[in-house]
Design brief:
- There is one protein chain.
- This protein is α+β, with helices and mostly antiparallel strands and 266 residues long.
- It has 2 domains: 93 residues, D-amino Acid Aminotransferase, Chain A, domain 1; 156 residues, Alpha-Beta Barrel (D-amino Acid Aminotransferase, Chain A, domain 2).
- The strands form 2 sheets. Strands 5, 6, 7, 8, 9, 10, 11, 12 and 13 form a 9-stranded mixed β-sheet that branches. The protein has a 4-stranded antiparallel β-sheet with strand order 2-1-3-4.
- The chain is globular, with a radius of gyration of 19 Å.
- 37% of the residues are buried.
Amino acid sequence: MTMPWVPFDDRGLAYGDGLFETVLLREGQPVLWSYHQARLALGCQRLGIPMPADSALADTWKTPAEAPLEVLKVIVTRGSGGRGYALPDQIAPRLLSRRMPFAASPERWQPGVRVRLCQLRLGHQPQLAGIKHLNRLENVLARREWQASTIAEGLLLDHRDHVIEATSMNLFWQSGQALLTPFVDGCGVAGTLRAALLELGYVRESKLPVSALSSVERLWVGNSVQGVWPVYRLDDPQGSILRTWPEVQGPDPLQQVAHPLLGYPA
C-alpha cells in the first residue's frame, strides 16, 4: 500500500535501508517503466527486500495526470522492526510515492551545460553498485562542493581515478564513431536511460580515466527525467577551465537516440 508518511522506526529513515526510483510521467504514463521495475527488482534482490507487487507499483501512477509532464518518486523501505542493524524476523516493506508537475530544461539540451570535477571519491562496493539505494550521502556531499547556478553538474571519480558518473546523472562521451558510458559495477548508479541505450546497442561500456577526460571528442550527462545535456565546459574543483567543447552543429548524436525514448525532441 502506498503510504503518505514514514514512522519514526522505519529502517529507510534510520539506515537508508531501502530503494527509490524517479520516473518521468508523460500524460500520466510512466516512461521507461520496465527499466525502472528491473532496477528496483535488482535492488530488492541485492538488499533482501521483498519486491512490491506489480499492481501496487502501478497504483503509484494510475491516477489522473495533473500536468502533461510529471515526476513520480517511488520509495521502498524494509519497513520497521529489528534491533539495531539486525533485520526483523518478518519483513513488511513500506511503499511510498509522490508525483509532482515537472518542466524540462530545453536550454540545457542546447547549447549545453558547464560541469566540474568533484573532490569527493566514490567508495568501491559492488553489492550496492548500480542500484538506487536510499543512502545517497556521497551524492549529497559532492553536491555541497559548489553553489554557483552556472554549474549544472559535478563529475565523480572512483579511487582508481576513473570517471564514473555525475551527482544525479550518468555520463556519456564520444570516441570516434562510438558512444560510450562508464562501467558502474563497482560504484555508481545504473540509470534507466543508460540501460535502455545499452540494451538497444546505441551505447557501450568503457573505462574513462580522468586523465583522458579532456581529450574526448564530446561529453554529455543525462538521465531518464532531464534527457541529455551536452557539456560545453569542464572545470576542475577550484574552478579553472580544464576543457571546452564547441556547440554541436547539426543533430546531436546522443540526443538523436536518447530523446525519442523519453518523448523529447532529438
